[in-house]
Design a protein that fits this description.
The structure holds 3 protein chains of 3 kinds.
Chain A: H1 3-24, E1 38-39, E2 45-46, E3 59-65, H2 71-81, E4 84-90, H3 93-102, E5 109-110, H4 114-122, E6 156-169, E7 192-194, H5 198-208, H6 218-231, E8 235-238, H7 243-249, E9 254-258, H8 259-268, E10 272-275, E11 282-290, H9 297-308, H10 310-319, H11 327-336, H12 338-346, H13 354-358, E12 361-362, H14 370-381
Parallel strand pairs in A: 3-4, 3-5, 7-8, 7-9, 11-12
Antiparallel strand pairs in A: 1-2, 5-11, 6-9, 6-10, 6-11
Chain B: H1 2-7, H2 9-39, E1 42-43, E2 49-50, H3 56-62, E3 64-65, E4 75-76, H4 79-110, H5 114-129, H6 132-143, H7 148-159, H8 173-197, H9 201-209, H10 214-243, H11 246-251, H12 259-268, H13 273-298
Antiparallel strand pairs in B: 1-2, 3-4
Helix pairs in contact in B: 2-13, 3-13, 4-8, 4-10, 5-8, 6-8, 8-10, 10-13, 12-13
Chain C: H1 8-31, E1 54-56, E2 59-62, H2 69-75, H3 78-111, H4 117-129, H5 132-154, H6 166-190, H7 195-202, H8 207-236, H9 239-244, H10 252-260, H11 266-296
Antiparallel strand pairs in C: 1-2
Helix pairs in contact in C: 1-11, 2-11, 3-6, 3-8, 4-6, 6-8, 7-8
Classes of the chains: A alpha/beta, B mainly alpha, C mainly alpha.
Chain lengths: ~375, ~300, ~300
């Protein structure tokens, strides 16, 4: 390659990069903060923040679950406050914990599920939240606050909740499974998609053996490991990012997924249904926490407050349908978007029947027994 | 002082090499040392590293564990050796397939008209310069149950009126193999091409004059002279395959666990950095051993580096 | 001449390999015009030009951009542009630095003897032969421990805290680029004829002038090749960036990986198509420049 060619090529790249950095390196908000409504690229009109919080930070770093945030919610926050929002994603609590505890990362807010908050508090990764800075906290249903993984909500505020249960494509599967134990049947081999969540999968195995999902008894865990080793080869794909894709695409016919994934799959294909197993589904709740040493705490409070507003939070009812703890959002949706609200309220997926909830099991932090669970997971999946 | 520097040649050399040396020490040697230290440590229940000296991680890799779940004194678990073996066989199979596919193409380009060679080469380079992750995604679209391949096969079966059930191709070890071969094929084509291109035409003419058949010419002239390219290509393929985790993640449905996946999972999901570091070091040692013996036999192929 | 040249076996297998290489790419490009948002099967091209997007179920029935609907969506996507900007910034910075220090190192290794020479040469081979994940994990471990210690010792908090981000990615990219640059320039220096330099010195030029006007111009092709190699490696890097990046330093490969973890719409395909066509255009340009240069000679 001769000298002049390469220098021309380099010049080309230089120009291209200057053009692109000019486009992308500047502000991420496309609309100028002028008077009048802020509108996102999909045409959604952003509500004003109420109350409006004073913020000096210019960016906010959040570390969140995949497939969990309406894009409009993110865009609106950027438009309304002029703060650049940097979002990184994970698809398991363990992955999140590993990155956060490794240190060196600059996240302000993360979204752990209930059971791992205890561990994060123990490891001093979280800072206490100042509830006085979040006047919209009252929007949440009292039944979701003050849970035993964080009494008094000192460290966390709720986001969304849901269940883990069986999902089935009733068109392609003849015998619909009714219990976790049914999933072991040979007729389902090679047709299942499971979320890649160690506690949930080991938990449901323990339930089939009649044990507690949070047991620390090594003998019971050993039994669960053996039983799980029979199931794993029958699972076609583990996917915590977007398991609905496998169901909709027909790569899998049944399996175990979360509420929201099942709801969206059901909307794309009504034959895909959600079954609460007889042993009881797994219940969970995701929460916002602020990391110790967060550099943009004021922006974080602004974000939390803004997204807690009923007219903003209802977007989750529209886009990612999990069980919603925000009464203001539910009322807003009911009043203004009855179709969206009714789809949510009528569905047994997002509104589990009372017996299912009563029968449900929450995953809890198991402290020192955690490595036992981790080891089972690694060994069973490595076969 | 500058005058003294001017006369002191070794010092000049050291100075010139200093920045690079600092970078290598800081970002290569020290991290590797750190990884080694951690690999001899123990994991705290919460996933932190306790800096002690224990060989537990290594013995666990070999399958011999003194900390059994069932409370026995010692037990043998061949799991990790299986994972290592699986990765080795996958890397080997990939390399063989890649050589089988790359050689004819490289040969074709090397023997093509000189004016057209560049075009053919660029046609090989374009997929190479297209993003790695995108190429893996492309295979997802082809292999899934309602993907393009099944669509075409179904259509063909319809033409000849044969009943057709879609093939389950995605999320199998086969998909991972295809993905790996696709990703690394260009890395083998280029070095083989370079070494083939250097073969002097007169050698072929001499062989023909001496009455050698086409096959014999290939076996005794072409193949041996192209070995440096094959070696360089093998190194460029074998080693990355051993360490890749993306292809098996996306195309294997997180079910095909290779060494790369094991390491990644130890650090991310299982929160056991000590074990992950041990696995990481073992992987590195294995690749160094393989490279050493391979280059001992076949040479390093330095002349191909500039490909 | 060569008895193998037009052997049908060679020709047909070569063509088959080309098909193998390009079939997935062509499928990717085709699906970027898919009317189906779920992007599982091809439901026809996005039709029509109207003034609004009409989505019936998951099919795009009409769109202001017509068949280029997903490309329009892509152009409104700020995250992509930011990722592209990051990717190029990182590639340029790491290429320039690694080319400079790599060339210096190559000169040192090729022409001088000094105590650390064997160690340097060996350490340069290591990044080439070890798997990227080993290096990535190692660097991540280093940064985690280092930042933890430094942040605590210097009492850095808030925005001034050391953390993973653009800087750490650039530094890591330099680490794996430098060996390649050094080896390429070294190879070039190996075939270098010293008599030119000696002639220049005989004619009275001092060392610096000799270097500037004789040596350097002759090794520039090697330097540029090395630089281009470093640029390519940085542009496409996934594994090392995966372990060393932080919020706001996403690169295109990481971004595409992130897209694959969500519902995959044809927007991913549109991004892939743009990437492929950019590469294609660059290569075409290179071809034309080379042809023109050859004609001039």
């Amino acid at each position: 390659m001769s000298k002049s060619n390469v220098s021309k090529l380099l010049a080309l790249f230089a120009i291209a990069s200057m053009v692109l950095t000019a486009c992308g390196g500047g502000t991420t908000a496309t609309e100028s903060p002028a008077a009048g409504a802020k509108v996102t690229s999909t045409g959604f009109v952003c509500p004003e923040p109420s109350p409006r919080v004073e913020v000096t930070s210019t960016e906010l770093n959040i570390f969140v679950w995949t497939e969990y945030f309406p894009q409009d919610m993110l865009d609106c926050f950027e438009l309304v406050y002029g703060i650049a929002l940097n979002r990184d994603e994970y698809s398991s609590n363990e992955e999140m914990y590993a990155k956060v505890s490794a240190g060196g990362s600059a996240y302000d807010l993360v979204q752990p599920t209930d059971y791992i908050i205890g561990l994060m508090i123990r490891q001093e990764l979280l800072q206490e939240l100042d509830n006085s800075k979040m006047p919209n906290l009252g929007n949440f249903d009292a039944g979701w606050m003050n849970q035993d993984f964080d009494p008094g909500n000192k460290y966390s505020v709720p986001y969304l909740g849901g269940t883990d249960a069986i999902v089935v494509n009733t068109d392609t599967v003849e015998n619909i499974p009714q219990s976790w134990a049914d999933l072991w049947k040979p007729e389902y081999a090679g047709r299942m998609v499971f979320i890649d969540d160690s506690r949930a999968v080991i938990g449901l195995t323990l339930l089939t053996l009649g044990y507690d999902v949070n047991t620390t008894d090594p003998a019971q865990l050993e039994e669960a490991k053996a039983k799980l080793a029979e199931l794993v080869p029958n699972i076609k794909v583990f996917d915590s990012d977007s398991p609905k894709t496998a169901l909709i695409a027909g790569d899998a016919d049944l399996g175990m997924v979360w509420t929201g994934e099942a709801f969206i799959a059901n909307q794309e294909n009504p034959a895909i249904q959600y079954i609460y197993p007889t042993e009881g589904p797994i219940l969970w709740q995701d929460n916002w926490v602020m990391l110790t040493g967060a550099a943009h705490a004021d922006a974080a409070y602004a974000w939390l407050n803004y997204t807690m507003q009923g007219d903003v939070f209802w977007l989750t009812i529209r886009d990612f349908q999990y069980t919603n703890p925000n009464t203001a959002a539910l009322e807003y949706a009911k009043a203004n978007y009855p179709d969206v609200y009714n789809a949510y309220a009528d569905s047994p997926i997002t509104n589990p029947p009372a017996e299912a909830v009563a029968n449900g099991h929450g995953i809890k932090d198991v402290g020192d027994a955690t490595p036992l669970y981790d080891n089972i997971w690694v060994e069973v999946k490595g076969e | 002082m500058l005058q003294r520097l001017r006369e002191n040649k070794p010092a000049q050399g050291t100075l010139l090499a200093a920045p690079t040396l600092l970078w290598m020490i800081g970002l290569l040697i020290i991290p590797l040392l750190l990884t080694s230290v951690i690999s001899f440590g123990r994991r705290s229940p919460d996933g932190d590293v306790i800096f002690t000296f224990t060989l537990d991680n290594y013995t666990r890799l070999l399958g011999y564990s003194t900390d059994c779940d069932t409370g026995q004194a010692s037990c043998f678990n061949p799991l990790y050796m299986q994972i290592l073996w699986r990765s080795l066989t996958l890397a080997f199979n990939t390399t063989v397939l890649v050589i089988a596919l790359a050689y004819p193409l490289a040969y074709f380009i090397a023997r093509a008209h000189p004016k057209r060679r560049n075009t053919f080469l660029f046609l090989v380079l374009i997929p190479l310069w297209t993003n790695f992750v995108i190429r893996v995604y492309a295979w997802m679209m082809l292999l899934r149950t309602q993907g393009v391949i099944n669509l075409v096969l179904g259509w063909l079966a319809g033409l000849i009126n044969v009943p057709f059930a879609p093939l389950e191709m995605l999320y199998t070890p086969g998909a991972v193999l295809v993905g790996m071969v696709y990703e690394f094929l260009p890395f083998m084509i280029l070095p083989i091409y370079t070494s083939l291109e250097k073969i002097d035409n007169s050698l072929y003419e001499a062989a023909a004059d001496l009455g050698a058949s086409a096959i014999k010419t290939f076996w005794r002239v072409t193949l041996p002279l192209s070995m440096p390219g094959v070696v360089a290509g093998t190194i460029l393929v074998f080693i990355p395959v051993m360490g890749t985790f993306i292809v098996s993640d996306i195309l294997g449905g997180r079910q095909v666990i290779l060494v790369g996946n094991l390491i990644q999972r130890q650090f991310l999901d299982a929160r056991d950095p000590t074990f992950g570091s041990a696995a990481s070091l073992i992987l590195m040692i294995m690749t160094l051993i393989v490279t050493y013996f391979y280059t001992r036999k076949f040479g390093f192929g330095e002349e191909i580096v500039a490909a | 001449m060569n008895p193998h040249r037009r052997h049908p076996f060679i020709l047909s297998s070569a063509m088959l390999v080309y098909v193998f290489l390009y079939a997935p790419i062509l499928v990717l490009i085709l699906f970027s015009f898919n009317a189906s948002r779920a992007n599982i099967t091809f439901e026809g091209f996005v039709p029509k030009f109207t003034d609004r997007v009409v989505m019936d179920g998951s099919l795009v029935k009409s769109s202001p951009c017509g068949p280029f609907h997903w490309f329009c969506e892509l152009s409104k996507n700020q995250d992509v542009l930011e990722a592209a900007g990051n990717t190029l910034t990182i590639a340029f910075t790491s290429t320039i630095i690694s080319t400079i220090i790599g060339t210096m190192a190559a000169l040192a290794l090729q022409r001088y003897t000094f105590r650390l020479k064997p160690f340097s040469q060996l350490s340069l081979y290591i990044p080439i032969v070890i798997p990227e994940i080993v290096m990535g994990i190692g660097i991540l471990t280093l940064f985690s421990q280092l930042f933890g210690v430094l942040n605590g010792a210097l009492g850095l908090t808030g925005d001034s805290r050391l953390s993973l981000g653009l800087g750490t990615v650039i530094v890591s990219h330099i680490a794996f680029s430098v060996p390649f640059v050094t080896l390429v320039v070294q190879a070039r220096l190996q075939g270098f004829d010293k008599s030119f330099e000696e002639a220049a010195m005989d004619l009275g030029a001092n060392e610096w002038t000799t270097f500037r006007r004789v040596t350097f111009p002759m090794i520039v092709p090697g330097i540029l090749s090395g630089g281009l190699l470093a640029f390519t490696l940085s542009l496409d890097d996934f594994v090392i960036t995966f372990f060393t990046n932080g919020p706001g330093s996403t690169t295109l490969p990481i971004y595409v990986y992130g897209l694959l973890r969500r519902i995959i719409t044809p927007q991913v395909n549109a991004l892939s198509t743009v990437w492929i066509l950019t590469v294609f255009a660059a290569v075409l340009l290179l071809q034309l420049l080379q042809n023109r240069e050859q004609k001039q000679n």
